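Invent a record, attention on tokens:
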Amino acid sequence: MENAKVSIVIPTYNREKCIIDLLKCLFRQDYKNLEILVIDQSEHLSAEKQNLIRDKPEGLRYYKIQERGRSLAKNYGILLATGDIILFCDDDIIVPDNFISTHVALYKNPDIAAASCRLVEEGQPAVAIGKPLRTTFYGRLINKPFSTKSDFVTSLNGGNMSFRKDVLQQVGFFEEYFIGTSMVEEPDIAYRIVKSGYKLFFDASITVLHYPQFNGNIAEMSGKRADWFYYYFFNLSIFYLKYGRVANMFFVFIYSQVLSLKHVLKFRLSYSDYRRMVGGFFEGFNRAREVAKLPTPAKYYTPLRFEKKTYEPVTVQTSRQVF
């Protein structure tokens, strides 16, 4: 896919400095055949964001949407993208100047349909780990993108992950029934891609820096631990049951019980917190039964669950043009 057009999709919500810092990195990329689509779910569009849109319009398409949800925002981006490759970025990362060209180069291999690059947070070790992105049969998400070893994998890292657009159109978009911070959306879409005969690759040749924010996954885990696990187990139930992987559910149930009890004891949580955690498994199970009744056009295809209601292209008047 030499000189393929790349659509960079960035969902964002109430993160002023992060999104601006990332956009400045993307404006400096050594790969130029690209468009940048920001899907903003924030309440307000700040003056600083408006100034950035006005001062650097080339290739930047900025949208505000009213609905909330990470998977939903990504699906808006897919619908609006015009590139051959779609690259999703979290808004709290900093990328090197060869970030996009590294992703594009991977698609010279026609078997590779999706990829993630090495992502590191402060204090994480530089160690070589085989298969750093995968999901166990009982639902544990192995997510070690700090590995220094490039490898074929069976899952992706949401901080930066790219796809062939035609493969996304074939296997389906992101699952919009996932709740909370949409944990499990990466293993879910990766599962469909692998089952369709394609490969996923983890490239450790470059390093993306991740700066977790107050309203992100890590903060949710520490501040609202019971809710975090409720969402996690809810999403796991949907993931396994919607593909008919009933045999896995016994092990997922045991995993949810053991992990919940471990955190209750370690962090001295209440019995109501424990019930909240494991309740996610059962409520996800019930929702998955509803999902299973919906018509699907192909075995591994997840249709867009909800109608896309409103998106507003952001325009800023300049002396030259409106964009």
User: Anything to note?
Assistant: Residues 246-267 form the longest helix (22 residues). The first strand starts at residue 6 and ends at 12. Residues 317-323 have pLDDT under 50 and may be disordered. Residues 6-216+304-313 form a domain with the Spore Coat Polysaccharide Biosynthesis Protein SpsA; Chain A fold (CATH 3.90.550.10).
